[in-house]
Amino acid sequence: MSPTMAAAATGPDSAAELLLQRLEQVAADGEAGLCSLEAAAALGLEHQVLVGAVKSLQSLGEVIEAEQRTSKKWELTPEGQEIVHEGSHEVRVFNSIPSEGLLQSELMQLPSGKVGFSKAMSNKWIRLDKSSENGPRIFQAVESVQDTVREKLLQVQNGEANCLEEKDKNELKKRKLLAEVTIKTYWVKKGSAFSTTIAKQETDLTPEMIASGSWRDLKFKSYNFEALGIMPESGHLHPLLKVRTQFRQIFLEMGFTEMPTNNFIESSFWNFDALFQPQQHPARDQHDTFFMKDPAEAIDFPMDYLKRVKRVHSQGGYGSQGYKYEWKLEEARKNLLRTHTTAVSARMLYQLAQQEKFTPAKYFSIDRVFRNETLDATHLAEFHQIEGVVADYGLTLGDLMGVLKEFFTKLGITQLRFKPAYNPYTEPSMEVFSYHQGLKKWVEVGNSGVFRPEMLLPMGLPDGVSVIAWGLSLERPTMIKYGINNIRELVGHKVNLQMVYDSPLCRLDA
What we know:
The longest helix has 17 residues, at 12-28. The strands form 4 sheets. The protein has a 7-stranded mixed β-sheet, sandwiched between helices. A 3-stranded antiparallel β-sheet has the order 1-6-2. The chain has a 3-stranded antiparallel β-sheet with strand order 3-5-4. Helix 3 packs across helix 4 (47-58) and helix 6 packs across helix 8 (113-122). By secondary structure, it is of the alpha+beta class. The protein contains 21 helices and 15 strands. It has helices at residues 3-8, 12-28, 36-43, 47-58, 78-86, 89-95, 104-107, 113-122, 148-157, 166-174, 207-212, 239-253, 268-271, 303-314, 329-332, 342-353, 397-411, 453-456, 477-484, 487-491, 497-501; strands at 34-35, 64-76, 102-103, 126-129, 137-140, 178-190, 257-258, 265-267, 335-337, 361-370, 382-393, 416-423, 426-436, 441-451, 465-473. Its EC number is 6.1.1.20.
């Protein structure tokens, strides 16, 4: 076949027509069929191209009959082909040794040195003199050698692999000079509807065909009911759930333990009093907190701890003068929708204090909290709070800043600033700011601080134990920007990012 014909035959239709013509030719010579591998060689095609043509013709109906056959053959590996051209490693080593011998260290530097030395020694072609003056020296032990390995590989290359004994094949395979490969071919014969020309089959029945009646004279392609359909587009996690997963993974990588946060309803005691937040604080007003009607009050408290909390509020203690007011149990018993997950942190720290021997701990939580906000473009009645807590001896504000830097760096936020702030239950306290590259301004990304002794010591934690903590909202725009990185990719379709930033969940003044 000419180069022009071979190039033209690379298309599936051209290859199919050439195959049909070849099949017609061998049938005229009295042969029942042909092998696809032999046909590909005769037509100057790659075997895979011809296999594609066979499958294409099979889809046309009874044009051809094709039976798949499997056979095995031995082929030279790249190293085996190298030996055919240059000789075996052991022969090359033997030929490289001069009459005065060669230092073993120099021989080992040759391309075939290591393998060839081992094989030549086992064949007793060379000998090793360890008493040589400059180190072990290699000498030829015979006058000449025969390269039987190359001869056997030449037999395989010439298609005479069957002439080799099985042990020879296995030895060459063990040396990775031969490989046994499986070849899948087709035995192709004429079908009942055989033709050397390919008629295009219709795939769609159109209204025009029905109206004109032309469909009666057309051939339609058969449906392949075993073909796999197009996979439907799957759903996507909400972007906030994606960010939540990233936050959770960061905490786990840093060795934190997740706190149970499945109690949305909390008592005022754990939500406020245990955090050394006074009962007359504005956050306890009904304009800021959702209080429960049924059940309206909690009844189960650790009474010894409750008494210590009452004392530090009303009378002071642990080096503090307290708030000097009349602390009321009925206020502490009021049930509410928790306003922050710090209530969960208080419960966990109290449980930690009840251990016989204090052990350092790191906790985190990510869950919903509720505020009685007036709903508008920048405020919702619920949002997600992320909180991290570390309890250990001697923790300082420097430790808090170091942990925050590590935490936000894992999130992708590297430009941080800290600003002093006030929180009822932390002293000192800091707000955390990050520079937003998109908005070209510093925005608040979280709040943090060291829990006050008035909160920790009534729990029973030992003197000298400090607790550092920080919290942030999942919905903050910087968290969306840095945590998701590319919101378009996550939701699976085009999104106007400015609309995302301007939404109620992401407004900077939210």
